[in-house]
C-alpha cells in the first residue's frame, strides 16, 4: 500500500463513520438539522419566576414520521450518565394524549402534543432548585426504531 492511498482510505472511513453517527438520530445540534432529515428546535435559555409555571419549548420534525408510530418522549435534567430523567410519556397511535409513567412527578407535564411534533415541557411551581440544563428526546418506534435528542439543551434560570 502506498501512503497517498492509505490517507484517502482513512478520510473515506472517517466520513462514513460520521454519516453513520448522524443516521442513528443522535447528533444533529439543537436548532439544526441532521443529514438524515431530523430537526429539533429548542431555546438556548428560558427564564422563570420562583413559584410560577414555566414552559421549556421543544419541537421536532422527521421525514418518515407516521401518525401510526408509537412515540416516546423524555426530558432529562443534565447530560450523560449523571442525568436525571424528569419526565417520560408514551403517545400511542390514535391516542389523544401522551400517557406519562405511573410514578411521574406531577409538577411536570407535556405542554405540547407529540403528534403535532411539539414536546414542550411545563414545570408547575418552578423553584430555584430547578435551575439547570434540560434536554428533550423523542423515540419513534415502528419498522425501524429511531430516536433523536437535542445536544445543546435549554438552560432554565429561575429567579
TrEMBL record:
<dbReference type="Pfam" id="PF07686">
    <property type="entry name" value="V-set"/>
</dbReference>
<dbReference type="InterPro" id="IPR042836">
    <property type="entry name" value="SIG15"/>
</dbReference>
<dbReference type="GO" id="GO:2001204">
    <property type="term" value="P:regulation of osteoclast development"/>
</dbReference>
<keyword id="KW-0732">Signal</keyword>
<dbReference type="InterPro" id="IPR007110">
    <property type="entry name" value="Ig-like_dom"/>
</dbReference>
<feature type="domain" description="Ig-like">
    <location>
        <begin position="29"/>
        <end position="147"/>
    </location>
</feature>
<feature type="signal peptide">
    <location>
        <begin position="1"/>
        <end position="25"/>
    </location>
</feature>
<dbReference type="GO" id="GO:0045124">
    <property type="term" value="P:regulation of bone resorption"/>
</dbReference>
<dbReference type="InterPro" id="IPR013783">
    <property type="entry name" value="Ig-like_fold"/>
</dbReference>
<dbReference type="InterPro" id="IPR003599">
    <property type="entry name" value="Ig_sub"/>
</dbReference>
<dbReference type="InterPro" id="IPR036179">
    <property type="entry name" value="Ig-like_dom_sf"/>
</dbReference>
<dbReference type="InterPro" id="IPR013106">
    <property type="entry name" value="Ig_V-set"/>
</dbReference>
<dbReference type="GO" id="GO:0005886">
    <property type="term" value="C:plasma membrane"/>
</dbReference>
<protein>
    <recommendedName>
        <fullName>Ig-like domain-containing protein</fullName>
    </recommendedName>
</protein>
<dbReference type="GO" id="GO:0032956">
    <property type="term" value="P:regulation of actin cytoskeleton organization"/>
</dbReference>
